[in-house]
């Protein structure tokens, strides 16, 4: 590789492309594939987002991708939805310094690496989400999870919110593990005195319609876990995805889904024979913004 002054992101990534199939070479391959699927009108892009991607700085990146028509389906964790709403309600994620965690607890601060959240922001979150839940259940009590998240998105005003932008752009958000989050805890508390039913399996019919209605499907996988599996497994009945990019720091030796190489998905018909698959090992909060910037620059050439 040659690194020069005032190189663009794409120029640097293109230099990486000549270095084989180690991390740098895979970075180039993944960027090139991302550019191709974003440019292909026949390809529906399913993005799965696990891990603390919103607290880690990708909130506006994902929001802008939705707003600019780059994502057709978003599959994420309840935690990322919670943190999106935390900021939509006026809260923040604060950069902290290394302190004793017991002291942080006494101060009402929760820690994600060096990112802090304040209990007072979650108190506002609890109040605001309860108000929204009360409003959206005045008439209807029964929703699929996607319908429920769309209702919430239509109830908030923050233009930088992932949920609001997806609702405005009619982009579905699926969160099969929604209950495993602070939002899930608030749902349980709300249901102690109110009627509300969420049908997780109800999303599958709608998601299957999207899969069968798409000529091709590509998945962009940030992290692993349940969102990764949901994105891949939803394509099983059609023989699997046509292309996939995975950014993960998990390892495959233990048989975990999060660390499994994408090629393994072919054995389950979650990725088609001949599909274009690229895995990049590393931190998605570092790698994906560079990859997206390179792909966008590539498509302008």
Automatic annotation (TrEMBL):
Entry keywords, A to Z: Hypusine biosynthesis, NAD, Transferase
Coiled coil: none
UniProt cofactor(s): NAD(+)
Keyword Transferase annotated: yes
InterPro entries documented for this protein: Deoxyhypus_synthase_arc, Deoxyhypusine_synthase, Deoxyhypusine_synthase_sf, DHS-like_NAD/FAD-binding_dom
Pfam short name (any one): DS
Broad enzyme group: transferase
Catalyzed reaction equations: [eIF5A protein]-L-lysine + spermidine = [eIF5A protein]-deoxyhypusine + propane-1,3-diamine
GO MF term (any one): deoxyhypusine synthase activity
Enzyme Commission number(s): 2.5.1.46
Pathway note: Protein modification; eIF5A hypusination
Active site, UniProt feature: 270 (nucleophile)
UniProt GO cellular component terms: cytoplasm
Function text: Catalyzes the NAD-dependent oxidative cleavage of spermidine and the subsequent transfer of the butylamine moiety of spermidine to the epsilon-amino group of a specific lysine residue of the eIF-5A precursor protein to form the intermediate deoxyhypusine residue.
Assigned protein family: Belongs to the deoxyhypusine synthase family.
PANTHER family, sorted: DEOXYHYPUSINE SYNTHASE, DEOXYHYPUSINE SYNTHASE-LIKE PROTEIN
Name of the protein in question: Probable deoxyhypusine synthase
């Amino acid at each position: 590789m040659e690194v020069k002054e005032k190189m663009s992101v794409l120029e640097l990534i293109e230099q990486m492309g000549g270095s084989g199939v180690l991390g740098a070479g895979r970075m180039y391959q993944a960027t090139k594939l991302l550019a191709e699927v974003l440019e292909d009108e026949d390809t529906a892009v399913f993005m799965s987002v696990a891990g603390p991607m919103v607290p880690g700085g990708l909130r506006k990146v994902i929001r802008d991708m939705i707003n600019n028509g780059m994502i057709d389906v978003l599959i994420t964790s309840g935690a990322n939805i919670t943190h999106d709403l935390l900021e939509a309600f006026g809260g923040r994620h604060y950069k902290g310094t290394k302190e004793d965690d017991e002291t942080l607890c006494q101060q009402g601060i929760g820690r994600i690496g060096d990112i802090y959240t304040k209990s007072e922001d979650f108190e506002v979150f609890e109040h605001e989400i309860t108000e929204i839940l009360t409003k959206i259940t005045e008439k209807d009590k029964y929703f699929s999870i996607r319908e429920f998240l769309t209702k919430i998105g239509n109830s908030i005003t923050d233009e930088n919110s992932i949920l609001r932008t997806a609702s405005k752009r009619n982009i579905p958000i699926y969160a099969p593990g929604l209950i495993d989050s602070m939002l899930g805890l608030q749902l349980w508390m709300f249901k102690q005195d109110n009627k509300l039913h969420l049908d997780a399996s109800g999303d599958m019919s709608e998601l299957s319609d999207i899969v069968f209605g798409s000529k091709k499907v590509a998945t962009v996988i940030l992290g692993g876990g349940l969102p990764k599996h949901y994105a891949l497994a939803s394509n099983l009945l059609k023989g699997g995805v046509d292309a996939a990019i995975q950014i993960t720091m998990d390892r495959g030796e233990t048989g975990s889904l999060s660390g499994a190489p994408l090629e393994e998905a072919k054995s389950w018909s979650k990725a088609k024979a001949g599909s274009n698959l690229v895995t990049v090992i590393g931190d998605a909060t570092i790698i994906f913004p560079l990859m997206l910037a390179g792909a966008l620059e590539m498509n302008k050439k």
